[in-house]
Amino acid sequence: MKIRVFDNKDQDQVVALWHACGLVVPQNDPIKDIDRKLNVDPDLFLVGHVGDEIIATVMGGYEGHRGWINYLAVKPSHQRKDFGQAIMQAVEALIKAKGCPKINLQVRSSNEAVIRFYQSLGYGVEPVIGMGKRLEID
């Protein structure tokens, strides 16, 4: 797998991958999420590809205090082959290079396999509650 920054030509494959991985939920329009990301730290939106096929994605962010990870996805037929680890290491290095001291991410509490995956990368469950407020309806 080769890793590079997202390009607009990737959009259809990326959205299909997110659907295949169960990341698209009614309250999030993936096209709007991509458009928003391209306006803020687009260099932290990475895709992993084998030939012309997008098999992995991750959206990183850094707002000056903490880094964030969103939309980590690996095509189901390519999971458990270290592609998730590779794209995470790539985005972590980019976020760290911006001076970020810590990365946060959110996982649905019912997604035990993904929690174990992130723990294997050194992430820990913290005693905090994630909260959100919708400012725009997608």
Automatic annotation (TrEMBL):
It holds the Pfam family Acetyltransf_1. SUPFAM superfamilies: Acyl-CoA N-acyltransferases (Nat) (SSF55729). Residues 1-138 form the N-acetyltransferase domain. Keywords: Acyltransferase, Transferase. Coiled coil: none annotated. Its EC number is 2.3.1.-. GO terms for molecular function: acyltransferase activity, transferring groups other than amino-acyl groups. It comes from the Bacteria. This is GNAT family acetyltransferase.
